[in-house]
Structure formats: structure tokens, C-alpha cells
Amino acid sequence: MSEDFWEATRRRRLVVQRCLACGHRQHYPRRLCTACGGTELEYAPVSGLGVVDSFTVVHRAPAPGFEPPYTVARVRLAEGPILLTHLVGDTDWACDLPVRVAWRPLPDGRHLPVFRLARTDQEDSAHED
Question: ChsH2 C-terminal OB-fold domain: from which residue to which, for each copy (predicted)?
């Protein structure tokens, strides 16, 4: 059910489900719209902008391959859905900070959406290569 989501990450596109009946957007992928129960859902692109809704810093690795400390967060996208994700970058994280999607490559060509502190347009243009 989540194949289209992961396929979009190969092109570094963030998508969420959108109900064709009521327009509600949701994430994680489901078979039914959580707003109206509709079954006609499509994947629609989102801006990749959001705010930190909640977070925690993990200091103990749950399994090999996880290098602590790292920050796990709920990010509320500008379009409404909430994603469980990682926050990256050397930041003193706090709730309500603005964030922007970034991408962590996976071995199979997909990318994991992670989030970093959003900079202003002026800061973004100063950091363009």
C-alpha cells in the first residue's frame, strides 16, 4: 500500500494520501480516508514544510546501526498530516520550530525523508551552490 510513497522518494518528492471525496490529506498510508471513510485515495505532493510538533532525543541505540544521540520527532506538515521522522542538524530543538524536508539516501535508491531547521529565503539563497 505504501509503494507509491516510497517510489516518490526515489525522486526526492514528499507525497501524502489525499481523499478524492473530501480532500483530506493523511499520512501514514491507509485503505480508508480517516475523515470521511472514502476509499478513493491518491498520492499528492506536499511542500515539505512543517513545524516540530513533539520530539525526543535518543541516547541509547535500540539496535545495531543506530548511532546515538539522534532526535525522533513528530512533524506537522503545512498541509496538515503528521510524520514520525528524524530531525537532523546541529540545532537546539524545540516544539513549534519551522522545519523543511531533507533526504537521507537508502542503499536501494530510495530516500528517507528527514527534517532540518527551515531557513529564511535570504539564508537559503546565501547557501546555494
Answer: 45-104
Taking residue 14's Cβ as centre, other Cβ atoms within 10 Å add up to 21
d(CA 21, CA 60): 44
Q: Which stretches of the chain are DSSP H helices? A: 3-9, 121-126
pTM of the model: 0.87
Phi then psi for residue 64, to 5 deg, are -55, 145
Q: Which residue has the cell 513545524?
A: 51
Average confidence (pLDDT) per 10 residues, the chain, 129 residues: 95 98 97 97 98 96 89 98 96 96 97 92 44
Q: How many domains does the chain have?
A: 1
Which residue range is the domain that position 31 belongs to?
3-126
